[in-house]
TrEMBL record:
Residue ranges annotated for the Cas12f1-like TNB domain, each copy included: 212-274
Pfam families attached to this UniProt entry: Cas12f1-like_TNB, OrfB_IS605
Domain of life according to the entry: Bacteria
GO molecular function: DNA binding
UniProt entry keywords in alphabetical sequence: DNA recombination, DNA-binding, Transposition
BP terms from Gene Ontology: DNA recombination; transposition
NCBIfam families: guided_TnpB, IS200/IS605 family accessory protein TnpB-like domain
Domain Probable transposase IS891/IS1136/IS1341: from-to ranges: 97-200
InterPro entries, A to Z: Cas12f1-like_TNB, RNA-guided_DNA_endo/Transpos, Transposase
Protein name, as recorded: Transposase
Record-stated family: In the C-terminal section; belongs to the transposase 35 family.
Taxonomic placement: Bacteria, Pseudomonadati, Pseudomonadota, Alphaproteobacteria, Hyphomicrobiales
Length: 282
C-alpha cells in the first residue's frame, strides 16, 4: 500500500509539473513494477542473494556487474518483463568514469556497424535479421489463433519474449561498443544522420537493426559522465571525398574500396570516417 501511495504521489507531482496529461487509470495487467526503498522490504545479503519481505529464504540473482565499492543503494525496482524478473538499483556513489585520449571519427554503416578513422572495423551483428524466419513463424502462429483464446495469449507471450531477446542482444552489444569507444577516446565525431527517409526505404530492416541513433545516444551519455566530447558533423559527401587529397570521388554503394588517383587506397567506410574526423576536429 505504501508503494501504491508513493506512485500516486509521483504521478500527480509529475502531472502538476508538466501542466497537462491527467494521470490515467492503470489496470492491474499493466502493473509490472514495485519500488522499494532499500532496506525497507528489500535487502541484500552477504552471499549476493536478495531478501524480500514475505518471501522465505534468499532469492538467487544473476549480477550483471558488481556494485561500486563506495556505493549506497537508494532504491530498488523489481520488475517482471516477459516472465523474467529484474531488479534495478539506483545507487549513489562517488566515482567518475575515465575517458581516453585523442580523437576519432566514426562512420556508421550497414555492412560494418562502425568504421573508425583509425581503421578499426566492427561488423554489424544483425540480431533481428538472424532471428527473422523464426519471428515470422511466431507471428503467423499468433495470427492463426482465435481472439480471446488461451493459446493466443501463449503465442503472444512467445513472440514478445523472442522480440525482447533480440532487443536485449542489440542493447548489450551497443553498450559494450559505446563503452569501448569512450574509454579509448576523448573526442568522438559522428555524422549527423537524418534517418526518416532511410527507415522507410528498402534498407529499413537493416537500418533498424543497426540502431545507429541508440549507439550515438549511448556514446553521448557515457561521454558526458566521463568528460569526453561528442561532435556531430554534416554528413554530406563523407563517402565521396578522398581523405588524403580532398578530391571528390563518387562511388556506387557496392564499391567497398576507396581508390583515388592520388594513390590513396582505403576501405570505403574507413575513408568516410577519416572525413568525419577531419570535419569535426580539423
Ligand atoms: Zn585522393
Amino acid at each position: 500500500m505504501q508503494q501504491v501511495l508513493r506512485r500516486l504521489q509521483q504521478a500527480y507531482a509529475a502531472f502538476f509539473k508538466r501542466g497537462y496529461g491527467f494521470p490515467r487509470f492503470r489496470a492491474a495487467a499493466r502493473y509490472h513494477a514495485a519500488t522499494f526503498r532499500f532496506g525497507d522490504g528489500l535487502s541484500l545479503r552477504k552471499d549476493g542473494r536478495l531478501g524480500i519481505v514475505g518471501v522465505p529464504g534468499g532469492i538467487k540473482a544473476v549480477w550483471h556487474r558488481k556494485l561500486p565499492k563506495d556505493a549506497t543503494i537508494a532504491t530498488a525496482i523489481v520488475t517482471r518483463q516477459q516472465g523474467k524478473w529484474y531488479v534495478v538499483f539506483s545507487v549513489e556513489a562517488a566515482f567518475a568514469d575515465a575517458c581516453g585520449t585523442g580523437t576519432v571519427g566514426i562512420d556508421l554503416g550497414l555492412n560494418s556497424l562502425v568504421a573508425t578513422s583509425d581503421g578499426e572495423i566492427i561488423p554489424a551483428p544483425r540480431y533481428a535479421r538472424r532471428a527473422h524466419t523464426a519471428q515470422r513463424r511466431r507471428q503467423r502462429a499468433l495470427a492463426r489463433c482465435q481472439r480471446g483464446s488461451r493459446r493466443r495469449l501463449k503465442a503472444k507471450a512467445r513472440l514478445a519474449a523472442a522480440s525482447a531477446k533480440i532487443a536485449r542482444q542489440r542493447r548489450d552489444h551497443l553498450h559494450k561498443l559505446s563503452r569501448s569507444l569512450v574509454s579509448r577516446y576523448q573526442g568522438i565525431a559522428f555524422e549527423d544522420l537524418n534517418l526518416t527517409g532511410l527507415k522507410k526505404g528498402m534498407l529499413a530492416r537493416s537500418v533498424h537493426d543497426a540502431a545507429w541513433s541508440t549507439l550515438v545516444q549511448f556514446v553521448r551519455f557515457k561521454a558526458a559522465s566521463a568528460g569526453a566530447e561528442v561532435v556531430l558533423v554534416d554528413p554530406r559527401g563523407t563517402s565521396q571525398t578522398c581523405p588524403s587529397c580532398g578530391a571528390i570521388k563518387p562511388k556506387a554503394l557496392k564499391e567497398r574500396q576507396h581508390r583515388c588517383t592520388c594513390g590513396c587506397v582505403l576501405d570505403r567506410d574507413v575513408a568516410a570516417a577519416k572525413i568525419v574526423h577531419r570535419r569535426a576536429f580539423g
